[in-house]
Amino acid sequence: MKSLSYIDVFTPRSLEEALELLDKHRGELAVLAGGTDLIIQLRKAQQKAPNLLNIYMLDELRYIKHDNEIIKIGALTDFATITESPIIQRHAPVLAEAAATIGSVQILNKASIGGNIVNASPAADSLPALYVLNATLTLRSKTGTRKVAIEQFYKGYKKLDLQSGELLTEVSFPAMKQNQIGMFFKHGLRQGDAISVVNGAILLEVLNGYVKDARIALGAVAPTVVRATESEKTLIGQRLSEDVILKAAQACLTSISPIDDVRGSAAYRKEMCVNYLYMTLWQMMRMVNL
Amino acid sequence: MKRVYTAYDAVRGAPIYTEDIVPENALRVKALRSEHSHALIKRVDVSAALEVPGVLAVLTARDVPGENITGAVVLDRPFLAYEKVRCLADPIALVVAVDEEAADKAIEKIVVDYEVLEPVYDPVKALEESAPKVHENNLLRHYKLRKGDVTRGFNESDIIVEEEFRTQMQDPAPLEPEAAYAVPEKDGTLTIYGSIQNPFYVLTGVSRILGLPRDKINLVVMAIGGTFGGKSDEAPWDVCAMAGLAALKTGKPAACIYGRDESMIAHSHRHPAVMRYKVGATTDGRLKALDADIYFDTGAYASVGPLVMLRAVTHAAGPYVVENVRVDSYLVYTNNLTAGSMRGFGSPQVHFAVESMMDILADKLGMDPVELRLKNAWRQGVVTASDAVLMDNPDFGVLAEKVCEELGWRRGEKHPDEGVGIAFMAHGNSLGPEGEDKSSATVRISSDGTVHVATSLTEYGTGASRGFVKIAASVLGVPEDRVVVDRVETQKVPDSGGTFASRSTLMGGNAVYLAAKRLRERIERLIEESGHKGLDVVGFVRDVLREEVSEYAEFKLPVCDYNPETGKGTPYLQYTYGVVGVRVKVDRELGVVRVKDIVAAFDVGRVVNEGYLTAQLEGGITQGVAYGLLEELLIGKKHKVLNPNLADYLVPTAADMPRVKVIVIENPSPLTPLGTRTAGEPGIDAPAAAIANAVYDALKIRITSLPITPEKVVAALEKSEAIAVFV
Ligand SMILES: Cc1cc2nc3c(=O)[nH]c(=O)nc-3n(C[C@H](O)[C@H](O)[C@H](O)COP(=O)(O)OP(=O)(O)OC[C@H]3O[C@@H](n4cnc5c(N)ncnc54)[C@H](O)[C@@H]3O)c2cc1C
């Protein structure tokens, strides 16, 4: 553990000032949001910690809006706000469900969705939900704004399409439609403050009892969150039945490449992935066929 | 005289802990620890480390002024390793620097050449002839339990069951890591402030390492942010000696404060165990024979392992009357991290084995597990497994009845994948065979009428000091707010022995009681002689005598005559008795065991302070549930510790615990003046076994190794289903 007392912290009062500072000190500043990942990493890091750009005061990055069937969330919005938001509960319940499982009350109040996205842990709990919602990230720098689909943002383990000088300011996605249902699952080793052994989100669009579209994202089973494309294919065009969902659950094995680690063996992770997909699809089947 | 800190100070964030009082400009001491579990040290080069700006000194074994040796029971551990390292916690060099950052940098610059030796990690393998030698002899202790003739016992048995159990290394994980701050005084003495559980033991160790006489060192006990055993053994000696050595070498105040990872590696852990049991009984459930081999892995050093082994072996047959008993227990050196004190002290391991065995047997006999236990449970006057008559007066019938009633034991319909399990426990009070148990206390009334209680027993959240206040106040007939427990400083308080083995209220409480009683009698005599009848004790001292009056008393328990060589004799005079029942629900797909309900009844003799008492019992149960389901220091393929942090070392959260119903029975011990039984540790003994038994009740799978992780449950279910298909 290291003392961090020598670090300089810049605390801008506006987004403009923040982007200005990021540009001026290109590559020398780490962005500090809630700090629930960053501070721990700095204390453990081998190299000297960088100076910090503390954006925690920028309330202009805290919002949840419903705009023309698009849901927009400011990057600094914390997970307690997200999970309690009526807009999210109504238009993206799968994200509300995922957000509620993050850490404990203290973490929920401090941790930002932007931090969860940029920290890029394969086990991050908001990511599978954002994947199935087809989320778009808004990245801003002094010179401009660009939008990236969340799946394009991750290039490998903790490799991001994010330039120095860029700040993540917003995450947005289409509001869920009437005929879409979504569910999130998480397997942790204890009931509170658990890091996911596997997690995942499923979003199904159902028309006249048939699956029109299916999106399944799985976490903690590969270097980045992955889409279970074979499982999705197995479902599309089908009516949900025990047979179909079992096949779909088993098909996920082609998409994942888990490793052995302190939270579980690869074999156990695979088994949990299949079991969770089956259990979650089974619940969705009940909802659809009611 | 400063008082002991209270819970109120802690919750309002008062600066009461060691780290809180370390000034900004104090020097920092950090240790370089071994890269290997077993290796010869060929060369240590500190020259580059000395070049790092801000570094004042880099110290190795050569710089130790006193004896470079430590050990709570056996002197087997170098304070700073030389020649050889035996586990990853071994410190090789100390860096003294102006701040942590400089110290960290310098540590990376120290070059150590090792010759790696083959390590041994399994306590059973370590006993083989060809095993690598951690010390001269890997077998550290061999203790026994003997009664009757087990061969005859098994011949007379109708049913015999056998099983092997394994338990994990549990970390005590107190909230505050180890810390010490040493200040060299002008008169050549050294004051060391620290998170110190047993100050007089630490004083012995530190004075030996530093080569300073005991009276030249004053150890001041700051508020202790938990210990659970981690601060009972040698970790506080190390931090105190490390800070003390730096202060001596530089002439400046220096602090040594462990980070979480260092703390989890360096302090004492619960002994991992391998336990092979065989039990025989008649068809009507009489226990005829119990035969066991028990291996405790003490890691690289003994610490208090020999004492832990004594407790384990003497509890190894459970609170049952068995006609014939043979237990051999082996305490073994390996290259694992050192095991020593941890809440329960050898007792949770054997309880897991014995209480699992009782259910396995009950199942074979087709008998109710509670009925089988009650049929064989201890009563006053029975002959125990060490062939001694029990003088104490347990009543398991009452305890079991209360738990079964409250839990709804096997009543009504069983829900799918739900199960109930039960375990009995008995926890020997005080030190028993671990040593002569003597405690002492001074109680004084100062001229302003304040009552002071002084012992060397420390307060780490158990409320023992509140108990002393209550006892002194009630004996002297004063309100509790007039009584102060003095802060523990080795130069100022009497040596009352260590604050371990749940002995504070039993041993210290009785000493405080005797000292207060003496003080009252003496002052009452003075009142009588001086003709001031009608004045109360404190009023007389304050208004008439106007000077301090003080009394000292010792309280001793008779020495127990259990002999570990013959395996016979009385190990403990009295015990705390308990019955723990749980209801679990197991998820077949995920392997997750959820504890839905816990009901536990304990015979605590007499209640001194109800709030603290139930807090201790609930806390023990919580840590016991974690022992059963969650906590394990994981060792990787390259034999590094994988989870020395609180993200991956799974201490339970509030969400992991169900409602815990604690029922307290007051059945005073006939053997001590206050009649109290101990409560700090007993809660941790039985939950793991009760959970394992409940999992069996739910799914008919028997998990014999702790912790019961989802992965193990899934694997066991697969195996049992495969067998079912096969059959
Ligand atoms: C006890 C505990 C429990 C936890 N439990 C969970 C859990 O259950 N599930 C889970 O997913 N996570 C968990 N976490 C991890 C963490 O809380 C989350 O990942 C959180 O969302 C991070 O957000 P933050 O605001 O704290 O980010 P920070 O720590 O401030 O930042 C994280 C990273 O993102 C960068 N960053 C932050 N904001 C921006 C931005 N707007 N633009 C560009 N870069 C940015 C930072 O530079 C840094 O690299 C837990 C952490 C702790 C300490």
From TrEMBL, chain A:
The keyword Metal-binding appears for this protein: no
Listed SUPFAM superfamilies: CO dehydrogenase flavoprotein C-terminal domain-like, FAD-binding/transporter-associated domain-like
Domain of life of the native organism: Archaea
FAD-binding PCMH-type domain mapped to chain residues: 2-178
InterPro entries: CO_DH_flav_C (IPR005107), CO_DH_flav_C_dom_sf (IPR036683), Diverse_Substr_Oxidored (IPR051312), FAD-bd_PCMH (IPR016166), FAD-bd_PCMH-like_sf (IPR036318), FAD-bd_PCMH_sub1 (IPR016167), FAD-bd_PCMH_sub2 (IPR016169), Mopterin_DH_FAD-bd (IPR002346)
Gene Ontology MF term list: FAD binding; oxidoreductase activity
Keywords from the named record: FAD, Flavoprotein, Oxidoreductase
Pfam families attached to this UniProt entry: CO_deh_flav_C (PF03450), FAD_binding_5 (PF00941)
Leader sequence residues: none
Protein's name in the database: FAD-binding PCMH-type domain-containing protein
Lineage: Archaea, Nitrososphaerota, Candidatus Caldarchaeales, Candidatus Caldarchaeaceae, Candidatus Caldarchaeum
UniProtKB/TrEMBL annotation, chain B:
InterPro entries: Ald_Oxase/Xan_DH_a/b, Ald_Oxase/Xan_DH_a/b_sf, Ald_Oxase/xanthine_DH-like, AldOxase/xan_DH_MoCoBD1, AldOxase/xan_DH_MoCoBD2, AldOxase/xan_DH_Mopterin-bd_sf
SMART domains xrefs: Ald_Xan_dh_C
Chain coiled-coil ranges: none
GO molecular function: iron ion binding; oxidoreductase activity
Domain Aldehyde oxidase/xanthine dehydrogenase a/b hammerhead: 12-118
Name of the protein: Aldehyde oxidase/xanthine dehydrogenase a/b hammerhead domain-containing protein
Organism: Caldiarchaeum subterraneum
